[in-house]
Design brief:
Elements: E1 21-25, H1 29-35, H2 40-61, E2 65-72, H3 80-104, E3 107-111, H4 119-132, E4 139-146, H5 148-164, H6 175-179, E5 192-195, E6 214-217, H7 227-238
Parallel strand pairs: 1-2, 1-5, 2-4, 3-4, 5-6
The structure holds farnesyl diphosphate.
Length: 247
Amino acid sequence: MALFKPKAAQAQVDFDYLPRHVAIIMDGNGRWAKRRGLPRTAGHAAGAETFRTIATYCQKIGIEYLTVYAFSTENWKRPLEEVSAIIGLLKKYLLESIEKMERDKIRLHFFGDLEALPPELRELTVRTDDISTHYDGMQVNVCFNYGGRDEIVRAARAFAAECAAGKKDPAQLTEADFSGYLYSAGVPDPDLVIRPSGELRISNFLLWQSAYAEFYYTDVLWPDFSKEELNKALAAYQGRSRRYGGV
Ligand code: FPP
């Protein structure tokens, strides 16, 4: 049952039939900034604000899981100034969100290799992850230093190590067992994956988990992505027929 029904969008979206899990590739920050003659870092700052708006809206309407792609394993190739700005935005966001997370019982988790983060930020991610583990509100998963292939390789290594230790039998491995070795262990697969900014690529995002996800693309750049844009994506999702390989 939806927690809140926005009036303006009621005609388009059935708020009683929402995807449980929405995943978003937050793309187009750089182009948004360039069009305004601003540095790329200003685009990321605007993108972080959009993330805040969309996460708050998802929580209001009753989405159970929201996963966002904030920084990929390939994004280290960007100029140091840009990488530092994104890391700084994550830190700012975490510090500003702790209170709201506590109030709304939001669970915040990270998918990705956080070892590479500066120690202070790493400690903050562990702290926010830990304090929210037992909350029962929406779960937000931030993919940071995340790559879908990297995630699968890490899972394969972990499983292989258990086999080598005699704890697991490779012949008995099921898809469900393997899912338990991924960063997303215990999280249902995304129902809807959204990519703004006109790109038609998956870009190493949730490769295993999005096997049966519905995709939604829009030309709107992430900093301009609004609640109305999310409503359009939800309405499109509701118009799809999910067959999971059946008829
Ligand atoms: C992709 O746009 C965006 C990123 C690589 C960074 C996304 C980061 C944030 C929104 C801020 C930090 C996150 C949180 C959770 C607070 P792009 O730079 O590739 O854009 P372009 O394709 O137009 O160049």
